[in-house]
Amino acid sequence: MGITWKILTGYQLAIWVTIHRQLWKMILLVIGNKAPGPDGMTALFFQHYWPIMEADICKMVLNFLNNGIFLRKFNFTLITLIPKVERPVSMAQFRPIALCNTVAKIIAKTMALRLKKVMPTIISDTQCLYAPHAHHR
Description:
The protein has about 140 residues and is mainly alpha-helical.
């Protein structure tokens, strides 16, 4: 049940190349060694091993964008406390952090970039407080 898209092979190749470029851009935007995901992998890992992982990551992202299917193991976030000081003695000396899977971060950034391009056409003047491009009145 769903729409079967019939796209010419040349267009499929263009879409594939565009996705590869967008994902590489998103991987570079995710800060390299900051806040690893629950699997312990940072964006730096993906940046370094991108030539090996590129095809699989792109297939997974395209599968998600086209079918809405995202493997449960990649949609996992660990919420934990990080100490603000070297030897914390009270809860006020901790800050909460959500350690999201790097693949989920990449997909979220890709979707945000795509939405940002169309937001001016789908947000009306009465909704301007929600749109970063709009002038607040």
